[in-house]
Amino acid sequence: MNTDVLLQFAVSGVTVGSIYALVALGFTLIFNATGIINFAQGQFVMLGGLIATTFANTLAWPLPLAVLAAIVLTTAVGAAVEALTIRPMRGRSVFTLIMITLGVSIILETAALLIWGTDPIFLSSFSGEAPIPFFGATLQPQMIWVLGGTVAAMAALWAFYRYTIFGQAMLACSINVDAAASVGINRGRMVMVAFALAAALGGLGGVLIAPITSTSYGIGLIMALKGFAAAIIGGMGSSLGAVIGGLALGLAEAFGTGLISSGYKDALALGLLIVFLVLRPQGLLGGK
Amino acid sequence: MESRKKKSGLQRPLIGAILFALAVLPVVYPHPFAITLLVFIGIYIIVCTGLSLIFGYAGQLSLTQAAFYGIGAYTSAILTTRYGVSFWLALAAASALPGLIAWALGAPILRLRHFYLAMATLAFSEIVLVFFIQEVDITGGPTGITHVPAPEVFGYKLDTTTKYYYLVWLLAVAVVGFSYNLIRSKYGRALRAIAENEVAASAMGVNVPAMMSIMFVLSAVFAGLGGSLYAHYVSFVSPDTFSVSLSIMLVIMVAIGGVNSLWGAVFGAVFVTVLPSMLGAYRQYAMLVYGVVLVLALMFMPNGITGLFQDAAHWIGRRRAASKDEVKEPAG
Q1: Domain ranges of chain A
Q2: Cβ contacts of A105 on chain B, cutoff 8 Å
Q3: How far is the C-alpha of B41 from the C-alpha of B279, rounded, in Å?
Q4: Contact A103 B108 (CB under 8 A)
Q5: What is the CATH code for A3-279?
Q6: Cβ atoms within 10 A of the Cβ of B134, count?
Q7: Residue B291: which of A103, A228, A270 has the nearest Cβ?
Q8: A281 — contact with chain B (CB < 8 Å)?
Q9: What DSSP state is assigned to residue B153?
Q10: For residue A195, what pLDDT band results from cuts at 50, 70 and 90?
Q11: What is the pLDDT of residues A99-126, one digit of tens each?
């Protein structure tokens, strides 16, 4: 096995890992604002991709506009989910909230099945298909979009936390909810912003990856599992951890697929999740 | 104390009536479709009862019941089609293997709680599914295993739906009866204590890990039993039957029925089995309905369908008490 092949594995690993990182960031946002894990997180990836295909393929909108519309609509769905099912349940048990997000996940998945059917749908690449040589490996142009989009999203998230009043308030909430409330931060609004942003990140992941892997109604649950695995591997609650976890998981999957077996790709990632949950639940970055 | 006495006084004739109805139904109303539905309801009751032990009583969300159900179905199918093992032996093996796996898996993952346990069990289910699809030599791969024989009981072949109905319901009643006695024993009290407050339960001397492990193993044994019954009834097994969405659906059954009562598992199994056939041409909306009903049920009736009945019983009880008070008041 030569280094070119290994480089190719690394390239595809980083690409897929970027999407996992976006999903994991979504988990992190909601976890920090509410302490719950949103099972429907993966459905935002599914929605983003499928809504984009409707605008771009069916309605023949220009691609940039279709992508933008898909992200905006997915964000709106995220906010609606929070307003309709999470906000009225404040003060209820964690157990109930898990079940609620699980129910929402099923509703979104079945709705997508009824709207878009079962067939996988491709979105056209953002800038053509001509492969780009990269040392010994080849890059699809879309891979650069995935990487660029992910880095841009991370930068925007960082700036949001660092420079906006909302971001600062959200950071305060994740450190100590009661203290945040006592200085006048509206926690309810923060939760809504967290859901909207998490949905936006998921939707972005969905449109970025749809030209490479295609998309269909059923990808949400496995995406949620992988994104959760990424968040756990990195250390739940940490944004940097989410990114590192996503990339680590993507790379592990790509090398596992290439070197061991492609059929066991998902099993490998999920086995890794169980191992981390049991042996190192604080993740790679978390202290003891 | 008094209310409990009253309740069981009401419950006993009710259970007797249900058992009698189940026994005579195929004779009185031999409608093939109804009997088929009831066979599936019976199988789901077995699987859901197992789930309600770990999910309802111990308060831990396990999303792996469909995987154990599948392991049971595959074990039975493989043993009877390839090795000519008898039905009873296959049924026993199909119940034992998931139990064994649950015991081994439970030791590490039952230490996890809430979301973490839910995600870990979900991940395990996906891994089992990958195994069903990939290990073609063992499981037949995506096409699965066909020609699983109808069971033979002491030389008597259970080859009609009605005969099978009696086998399934005999086992379903046994499983529910066993579980009912279990939750009324010290185990049941320990479970409730765990669900209420784990630290307190542990401080009172409940061996939390052991209790959880026992319930997880039992839930897997029941799932395997149901899986074996399923395989011999439909005569084939394939991976897509045992997908994660079935695990979620089973959890929904129990949650809709009400997590705090074994009746919840029964109501849930009936609801989820009957709904798709009621929807007819709109069958594909079934999952949507489950999702919406689940969310609404959690928001507006946290104790499920069973809770509604209990509320109604309480309401009647209060009315009675109130009318008594009214009579008393002028005197006092």
Answers
A1: 3-279
A2: 291
A3: 17
A4: no
A5: 1.10.3470
A6: 18
A7: A103
A8: yes
A9: E
A10: very high
A11: 889 899 999 999 999 999 989 999 988 8
